[in-house]
Amino acid sequence: MPTRFWDWLDGSFEDHEDLQKKNEELQTRLLILERRALKYAALASENNELRRLMNSAEVLDDRVIVGEVVGVSPDPYTHEIVINKGQSDGITVGQAVLDAQGLMGQVIQTSQFTSRVLLVSDSSHAVPVEVLRNGLRAILLGSGQPDTLDLVHVPDTADIREGDVLVSSGLGGRFPSGYPVAEITEIVKEPGEPFVTIGAAPKARLNQSRLVLVVFQPKTRQDEEPESEELAPDEGEAP
């Protein structure tokens, strides 16, 4: 009996060690599968974002190139991002940058393989816009907040409502016309003031979008055709 008891006890310890080892192996496999699931979810999200972006690109009349956000300015008072497209891709200063929802900003500096983009929410940024509903023109300024923009110099008699969509007007030649920029969220009229205070929410997901579109404006005939040299009149020819 003592011998059989010790044999049983020894077998129990071995079974416990085997179970513990199998449990650790299962936990390791579970962690690996969870990591793969997270990776697949991230890839699926990126694929959906790319699809939305390409659908937006099909609507645009201008030539575009898809870029990825690879950096964000650490300065809380500067709203800038860095994308992985640069001079080698034909990017130049001043080009408009969009995501699938609307205008994000413009290129302000380029290097060989990257570019810095100033977002529309930066306090130094201004976009000439117009109300999509009636064509009313105004200037949209960045407020320094990623979710709020300021529409300035709008008379208190202007026909503007909450929910109106603002699109780029194309005035000034910096931004192509017709791109969604923001939606009116607040209108405050102060008695005796000639202008109203108007707040708007950017259409683009400034703090979320990873993929962007850089817009190439169509070339004009003057850009495509070199200027012909003016020929001097032949000697003796009447002026």
Describe this structure in words.
This protein has 239 residues and is α+β, with helices and mostly antiparallel strands. The chain is 26% helix and 31% strand. It is built from two helices and twelve strands. The strands form two sheets. A six-stranded antiparallel β-barrel has the order 1-2-5-4-3-12. A six-stranded antiparallel barrel has the order 6-7-8-11-10-9. A hairpin with a 4-residue loop joins strand 3 and strand 4. The longest helix has 58 residues, at 2-59. The protein is elongated, with a radius of gyration of 30 Å. The model is unreliable at 220-239 (pLDDT under 50).
Short description:
By secondary structure, this protein is of the alpha+beta class.
Q: Which strand-content bin applies to the residues?
A: 25-35%
Q: How many beta-strand runs?
A: 12
> How many DSSP helices?
2
Instruction: Encode the helix/strand succession as letters.
Output: HEEEEEEEEEEEEH
**Mean of pLDDT:** 80
Q: How much helicity do the residues have? A: 25-40%
- Return the structural class: alpha+beta
Distance between the termini: 133 Å
User: What overall form do the CA principal axes indicate?
Assistant: elongated
Instruction: Name the poorly predicted regions.
Output: 220-239
Q: Provide the spatial order of strands within the biggest beta sheet.
A: 1-2-5-4-3-12
Sheet bearing the most strands, described?
6 strands, antiparallel, barrel
Kindly provide the radius of gyration, computed on alpha-carbon positions and rounded to a whole number of angstroms: 30 Å
